[in-house]
Structures are given as structure tokens and as C-alpha cells.
Amino acid sequence: MPHSTTTVRTPPTRDGGAGLSHGLKQRHLSMIALGGVIGAGLFVGSGAGIAAAGPSVVVAYALSGLLVMLVMRMLGEMSAAHPSSGSFSAHAERAIGPWAGFTVGWAFWVLLCTAVGLEGIGAAKIVTGWLPGTPEWAWVALFMVVFCVTNLASVRNFGEFEFWFAALKVGAIGLFLVLGALAIAGVLPGTDPPGTAHLTDFLPNGGHGLIVGLLASVFAYGGLETVTIAAAESEDPVRGVASAVRTAMWRIAVFYVGSMAVVVTLVPWDSGELVEKGPYVATLDHLGIPGAGQVMNVVVLAALLSAMNANIYGSSRIAHSLVERGHGPRVLARVSGGVPRPAVLTSCAVGFGCVLLSRWRPDDVFPWLLNMIGAVILVVWIFIAVSQLLLRRRLEREGAGRPVVRMWWFPYLTWLALAGMAAVFVLMAREADTRVQLYSTGAMTAVLAAAGLARQRRRTARTPARP
Questions:
Q1: Residue 323 vs residue 245, higher pLDDT
Q2: Domain 26-454: which topology?
Q3: Rg from Cα positions in the chain
Q4: Under 8 Å CB-to-CB from 284, ≥6 apart: which residues?
């Protein structure tokens, strides 16, 4: 006789967010999830990947996109069960120990603060191209002040900025894909269908070119983690995380893989304009779309400012969560008006400090800083995978019920993702351009891990044993 089963869903719990407001609406989270996957690296940096891999860059983006999709699924499983402004840092602490949360949290904070400065510099270069003679540092300072004030005011302000930035980016990508599809089909006025003329030399630089393209594509996906940080301050964090994770597959497929397929079909892979102008501008110029360069510059500027805003937000929340868990100076945990204002100010100050280093020490300290953060995102992904592996096992042992968001084919795909990350590390060690980044990031991670372990042991020693 058939019997019915009832699925027990684990009730979500919040941690690492005491005092923070919950002012983000579902529409904010939806657009943060959509826009977070579209960074300036996609608009500009992907040109270098195409130059190295040729048409096989589509395979490179598909492989790295599969890895990112698995990471997002794992992170979504943990974040839906335990929404936290500390996101993967809080999950690593619960799964592995305080030293792990300390290590991955502060490494990611350094990455985000440095990225704030880099995005400000990139945005300033675009504006000074329109207004020659104006100082770059002044534009960076202006952007920094605007987004610092925005984030100091309320989390809803951050959400509104990201909503409209994301809408612009998604609209631009959508229009590009429509125009590209029409051109490939030969129905766009003034164009002839290219067929497969540009795809015949699929691996022009052999396996080495594919590896370079793969490494370039892996680091283009940064920014997906923001939605799980923001979810802790939303009206319905579980719904927000679940929706973002479940739509990650088509977002990656359409925005990244689809875009690369359109570009390499329409433009010869060895065209110098792909690197010089960026693949999107080069493609639109190739199609004879008037004013394409300036329009795309506006979109790239929006992508840079969006990333700047999101990274100020993300770095402040990671810092607040870390300090709230006892991993830093208590002043950064202070919250007023639902916003961790000391953490926002500190993150902005460090970001602007990176800008100053790029001007004062461009040949030694600044390149060292860039190398140090070069592979941080891979370190974060490894901690996410290991944390999910341990927490899911713990959940099953405790019989706590089925997670709201569930990792596919556990534990096999988790182990597959870890193997993929290990393979990327090996590939980075083989390439001269990325080897220094790998070793520099490894050194920073080792120092943070040693500091975290020392703090954990001191805290354990001070805690009286239970009778």
C-alpha cells in the first residue's frame, strides 16, 4: 500500500546581522542577483580571453560557468538555512571553526576593498576620456563620496542604486544579444550572415590558449556572492536566496556563454579591436551600429559604478559580521539606523587608500597588492565547498529535514566542484602570468589562517572548562 511522505523543511535562522535593518525588497534582491553576474570584466576583460582561446572561449566560459553554478548552489543551500550578512564566512565558522571564518572573511574583505579602488579608477578613466584635462583622482574621490554616503544612509539606498544599475546592464546585454542573433540570421539591415567562417579555427592557440581563456573566464564571475550577503537584510531572505540560486544557470548561460558565442561568430577572433575596444563595442562597430562605442562606454561605466557600490556594501557587511563574531575591533560592529557605519567608512577609506597607492607606489606596493588578491575568489570557493560538505553531513546526521535549497547529487557534485577548483589552481601554477598571483594569495591566506588559529587557541584557553 503506497504511503505519503511529508517533506520537513529546515527553519531558517539568522546570524551575524544583529541590529541591521531588513530594508531590501524582493525586487532589489532579484535585480542584484541578475546584475551581480554582469561585471565590467564581461564587457571589457573578456576580449583577452577571446584573443587567447579563439572561438573555444565559449567552451572556457561554459566550463567555468558550470563550476560557478555549483558553487552558487552550495552557497545557496547554506544561506537559505542560515541567512547571515557574513555569508560564506559565517558558514565556514560553523562548519570548520572560528579560524576558517576569520581567514576567508578577512581575505574577502581585502579583495572587496581593493576592488572598490580599482573600479573607481576604471570609472574615472572613462569620464576623463569624455572630459580630458580633469584629474582622475578627483573623479574617484567623487564616486567614493557618493557611494559612501549612499551606503551610510540606509540599505534601501544601496538596493535602489543596484536595481537601476542592474536594469541598465541587463537591458544592454539583452539588446546586444537580440542584435547579434539578427545579424547571425542575416536579417539585420546592412549585414550578411557570417555562417561558420569565423569558427573554423576553433583552437587557434591549441590547448594552452584554451587554458588561458579558462583562467580569464573564471575570474570574470566575481560578484555572485553579494546576493547571499544582501539576503540577510531582506524582507524574505530564504525566498531571495532560493530564487537567485535557481535562476543562476540560465543567467550564466545567457549573459556569458551566449554573449561569447555571438561575439566569436560575428567578429574574427584575432581582430585587435576585441582587446582594444572590448568585445561588445568591437562587435557593434563591426555591425555598423552608429554610436556603439559611446553607448557601451556608458554601460561599462554603469557596470563599474555598480560593482563599486556593491563592494562597499559587501565589504562593510563582511567586516561587521566578522567583528560581531569576535574577529576584529569592536568599533566596526556598531550599528546606527540599521547600518554598520564605522564598517562602511573603514571599507571606503581602505578602498581610497588603494587608489592612492596606485599613484604613489605604482611599481612596487600596488602590483604586490593586486597579486595578493589575484586568487582570493578561488580560496573563497574552496571554503564554500568544504563548508557545505561538512554542514550537509551534519544536517543529515541530526535528521533536521530537507534543506530549502538543496545541492544536486550530493556529495558527488560537491567533490567534482572541489576537483575543478584544484585543477584551476594547478593551471594557475603552470602559467607564468598567474603563478605569482597564486603564490601571493597563498601567502596572505596562510598568514590569516595562522592568525585565526592563534586567536582561536587563545579564546579556547580563556574559556573555563565545563564541570
A1: 323
A2: Amino acid/polyamine transporter I (1.20.1740)
A3: 22
A4: 176, 179, 292, 293, 295, 296
